[in-house]
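# nightly structure sweep
# worker-07 picked up a monomer target from the shared queue
# config: single-sequence mode, recycle default, output format = structure tokens
# input follows
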Amino acid sequence: MNTTNSKQKLNYIRQIIIGIGIIAIAVVVWWHIPDSFWKYLFFLRAPILWGLLLVALPLIATLLLPAMLRNLFVLRGPWQLTSVIVSANMAAIGVIINAYMLLKGAPDRFGLSPWLEISDIWQYGLAIALSLPICVTSYKLSKEEIKEKNPIQAVIFSVFLSLGLLFAVIQTKTWIFTNFANNKLLISFVEFITRHKTEGYILGTQPKPQQFLEGHLSNIAFFIVAFIVYGIIGLIFQPQSEPSDKKKEAAALMYVMLIIMMIAPLSGSLTFYFDYYRVPVFLLFVVIVALMYALFKVDHFFELNLNEANNHDPNDFKTAIEKRLEHQDKGKEEYQGKTLVVVCASGGGIQAAGWTVQVLTGLQEMLGESFTRAIGFISSVSGGSVGTMYYLDRFDPDPDKGYPESKEFENIFKSATEDSLDAVGWGLAYPDLWRIIGLPFLAPKMCDRGKVIETDWQGELKCPKNKQHLSDWKKQINKGEIPIPIFNATLVEDGRRFLISPMTFEEECKDKNVNVVDFNTLYPGKDMDIVTAARLSATFSYVSPISRYVGENPQGNYHIADGGYFDNSGVVTMVEWLNEWLDPQKGLNIKRVLLLQINAFPESTPSKSNIEGGWFQAIIGPLLTLFSVRDTTQLSRVSTEVELLQQRWENQVKIAYCPIFFPKNGKNGEYKPPLSWTLTKKQKQNIKNGWCGIKEEIGKQIGKQIEEEWKKWGFEDPSQKSTNEK
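# output follows
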């Protein structure tokens, strides 16, 4: 005990000595560095921060937040690699040119001594150094993805293209200097906006000849070239509803570089102007943006269509389920009652979309078409809703089938796992950027990240040119062609679950005090595109913005957010429905229910934390706790809900529960799925490998749950099927 106390005291003394040493070093540095250095550091804060972002972004993406940002640097083709390298170079050049402008103008404007004189060659060298981390990281992470398409040629071409744009900047600067450096009208304009405080902008005073400082002309020349590049890229790469193999998309990372390229020189110029008057630029920016948002009533919207035939019949569910399961009555009179399969697909971005379709198509291969035909519901959330959309889109329209053909499995998986982040990048760099910087009147009302991701998803449907609506699915449901989909979302204003489905959940929604409402109840007489339904269910704000209906709605015009805020599994919705409709008085005659819960990520297990306490826990701890308990709390609630459901119907309906988690360990050790809306080829293959690794175990688990009564449940025995295939 005494030994332990002694060690603690020594450790405490050591920490005090280190702390005093750090303070002493800071004081010495502060004392010996001249005041002008700190002043320049302050006035150069904008380009310094943008430069640090260029250098730090690859480190953040690969070391701190790999699950969210690493795939941003994985590019799909040589053109994307070229565009990222060129845009990174342009962003870095913009930062350096802006810093040079501040260095040249600060002595006159702020009364400082001249500090550094940086030649053009050194400026270009610094720009290369700033862009190099992004270029190298992009090449390194993309090399495996595009190794068959000569990435070296893309690098060489990007060098020449960067030099071409730099030459354009130099020529533009020369042209401006020749024609406008002494322009009296422009000089008068600058005198007006600076209230005749032209120091740092103009050399000379009247009546002597006057001209603009070179740094400002370089900044203007760069901004002109950058603006032209920005406009051309925006027009060429505007997202279209085309399949991925028929459209060219610029990389999402390139759009990030474009934003820096445009904002960096602008922000530095604003600080140069307002610092003279001691006006904090960031605070001024926030005030202006807030005023513009209020003045133009800026918001994000989704559209609905009229559907006057959208009338609710209390027997809709009974009719739909009976039609869906009617094949179980043919030739199976010896089996009493019907089998209903209920699928719950959890959220988790594109990983959830891919895992959902892989599990459902894999189960059809393993258990036969009779399994898919027994699926009556798919209750999905977020990424699971996107996977559900593509899964149902490929169902065979033949009423005697009611399942997707095996030849469509690869198309379903391809559509569900296609990159969506590039389209989001366009929406962020164009209409949403204009809203953010206080120019919302430039952005079309119905154009934002949410709308362009809908456009992108539409292109991956079987018939991209033909929009499908909930009413179209309702017709298929009534014919028994597809299961009933439920896209779970959340109403922002009151936190209620919002069920986006062709069906009306009247019993669950008739009481105003309940915590759930469905689409047909909230928007009577309206219809919705299925891609809009999937997008609203998958509204994670940094990818797709929280939106509301663009028109007026007597029932309330709510903003709609991701369904995962309330229940990330989709199970709660189905438990409520089963408790309502398993009642024998409803007349469905369902005697067996298989509840499948598809989880896009490995099952969480308790782990020891390596994070130390102190200021980190004091600041981040509350948010970290909220994030950490979200999954564990919801999984615990799901388990409880299912147990209560089984207990309630114990002697009337056999309810089997089978959670299907993405496997924790892959072929090369532990695999951590990404959280972004883009997957690499390797990650797509990992989803397939993950299913291959657990499908035998899942077959045994399902078999154990239903006591090997495969025929009675209406499924093929997977062990017998494997034997026949051999």
